Amino acid sequence: MRLIDTSTLTLKEFPTSNQRYAILSHTWGADGEEVSYQDMTAHVVSEATKKKPGWRKIEKTCELARTHHGLQLAWIDTCCIDKRSSAELSEAINSMFRWYQEAETCFAFLSDVTWDPLNSLHQSRWFTRGWTLQELIAPKNVAFFNSDWTLFGTKASLTSELAFKTGIPRGILLHEITLDDVPVAARMSWASMRETTREEDLAYCLLGLFDIHMPMLYGEGRKAFLRLQEEIMRRTADMSIFLWTDPDSSRTYSGLLAETPAHFRYMQTVRIAEAETQRRTDFRP
Questions:
Q1: What is the per-residue burial (b if ≥16 Cβ within 10 Å, else e) of 89-99?
Q2: What average pLDDT is seen over the chain?
Q3: Residue 282: how many CB atoms within 10 A of its CB?
Q4: Is 184 in contact with 176 (CB distance < 8 Å)?
Q5: How far is residue 92's CA from residue 99's CA, in Å, rounded to a whole number?
Q6: Using an 8 Å Cβ cutoff, are 22 and 143 in contact?
Q7: Where is average pLDDT lowest: 65-79, 164-178, 240-254?
Q8: Of the candidates 220, 217, 209, 215, the residue with the CA atom closest to the CA atom of residue 261
Q9: CB-based contacts of 168: which residues, under 8 Å, 6+ apart?
């Protein structure tokens, strides 16, 4: 695992994730705004790099980790992964949920939340992105910061607002119940209104929610989501995976599996008992 030294802002390699570190959750800026692994590993970090908006994220994450939490290490997805290596990228994506889960604290930087956080919170782009779903669920401690890096709440203090906005049960947000206590269809519904830049990432960003590991095959398009469902079926007998609806009513036929998380949009309230009843009704000999 590659982490940032919060004092020197340099990268350090560790054989395992068995370290104390802070982690950042954020939405990426436009091309060229974020600091890459290559920027960080240059012989000298250039002035051009330090002028990028992403450099400010690194500085503030490290400052908060060091001064407020006594942490000497931090992880940020933009610069701690060498995305030129397909093997490293695949390992990182498969490990991402665990890395957020094991972090001492998570800083959620909502760059579009300004002077009135609680009123503008629900309009934030952070709630529309696929990757930030696991970044909300996995860590026990999440602190929310606005565009000025002013703390305006935590996952614990904002639980009701977060549950209302995302449809994720309070028990999941507070780690009072496990993900396996929630039917597959309901978990899928949490991602139904989210989007990713790459179509395949709609599947890859959900791996941790289902404790699934699988290789990354960028270029496979929607087949990635089908492959994810196949892996889920190998792991569990939860038949709620078939409780989806196709919003395209013009199609006469569809396959057994959903094509996107959007097909699970109306399954937020599915419960385990209901899913079992549905299974017995639909699959009666």
A1: bbebbbbbbeb
A2: 92
A3: 10
A4: no
A5: 9
A6: no
A7: 240-254
A8: 209
A9: 136, 137, 162, 190
Residue-range domain boundaries for the chain: 1-177, 179-285
CB proximity list for 48: less than 8 A, separation 6 or greater: none
pTM of the model: 0.91
Cβ atoms of 29 and 36 closer than 8 Å: no
Whether 57 shows a pLDDT value over 80: the answer reads yes
Q: Which two tokens stand for residue 274?
A: 């209901």
Q: What secondary structure, in 3-state letters, does the chain show?
A: CEEEECCCCCEEECCCCCCCCEEEEECCCCCCCCCCHHHHCCCCCCHHHHCCHHHHHHHHHHHHHHHHHCCCEEECHHHHCCCCCHHHHHHHHHHHHHHHHHCCEEEEECCCCCCCHHHHHHHCHHHHECHHHHHHHCCCCEEEECCCCCEEEECCCCHHHHHHHHCCCHHHHCCCCCHHHCCHHHHHHCCCCCECCCCCHHHHCCHHHHCCCCCCCCCCCCHHHHHHHHHHHHHCCCHHHHCCCCCCCCCCCCCCCCCCHHHHCCCCCCCHHHHHHHHHHHCCC
Residues in a beta bridge with 22: 74, 105
Q: Give the model confidence (pLDDT) of 72-128 as tens digits.
A: 999 999 999 999 999 999 999 999 999 999 999 999 999 999 877 777 788 899 999
In tens, the pLDDT along 172-219 reads: 999 999 999 999 999 999 999 999 999 999 999 999 999 999 999 999
